[in-house]
Write a structure and sequence with these properties.
There is one protein chain. The N terminus is likely disordered. The chain is 13% helix and 39% strand. The chain has a 7-stranded antiparallel sheet with strand order 8-5-10-3-2-1-11, covered by helices on one side. It has a 3-stranded antiparallel sheet with strand order 7-6-9, with no helix packed on it. Helix 2 packs across helix 3. The radius of gyration is 16 Å and the shape is globular. With 176 residues, it is mostly beta strands.
Length: 176
């Protein structure tokens, strides 16, 4: 039955696997976005992880570079502008982008709300998400200005502890 497929399994996570429905997973508000953990680094011994993100227009990740972690994006619906190094990719539903470790990258929401899957290998970003993000009280993006503007010096220090360097705010590469 369809409803059985959509429910989570009662078997402990990691023992034989698990299922999550579209609106299931541990959710956080981070930098104006909703980010839901679909597979945690704890489930894979840190080898990989995946988030589902909802990005409002004009918001995105700080310009950053992962020292050891590859990152990739698959847009489910909406539109993201994604920069890898100096190259811009405009991604709509079905679009994919890869940000290899050691190459600066960022993304910015273009559509009113973009939903995408974000993968990491190994999964280091999760530490940053847990330290900076706030548990989401509901699976919705946070209200605009749901807190003080980000302190990029503070974010940079937390990012460094979690394997990546914040190079600047969201937007095109510096100097463009």
């Amino acid at each position: 039955q369809a409803e059985d497929v959509m429910s989570t399994t009662t078997v402990p996570r990691g023992e034989v696997g698990y299922l999550l429905a579209r609106e299931e997973g541990e959710a956080f508000w981070l930098l104006g976005m909703l980010q839901t953990i679909k597979i945690s680094g704890n489930d894979t011994a840190g080898q990989f992880g995946m988030l589902e993100i909802v990005v409002p227009a004009g918001l995105g990740s700080p310009w950053h570079v992962h020292r050891e972690e590859h990152e990739w994006f698959y847009v489910l619906d909406g539109h993201l502008s994604f920069y890898v190094g100096e190259t811009r990719f405009d991604l709509t539903a079905g679009g994919f982008a890869f940000g290899p470790k050691g190459v600066p990258h960022t993304f910015i929401g273009v559509a009113p709300a973009t939903r995408a899957l974000v993968g990491f290998s190994p999964m280091q970003f999760e530490g940053f998400l847990r330290e900076v993000g706030k548990p989401a009280p509901a699976l919705v993006v946070p209200p605009p200005h749901a807190g003080p503007p980000p302190d990029f010096a503070r974010l940079a220090a937390i990012a460094a502890r979690n394997g990546f360097d914040v190079l600047g705010p969201p937007g095109p590469p510096p100097g463009r």
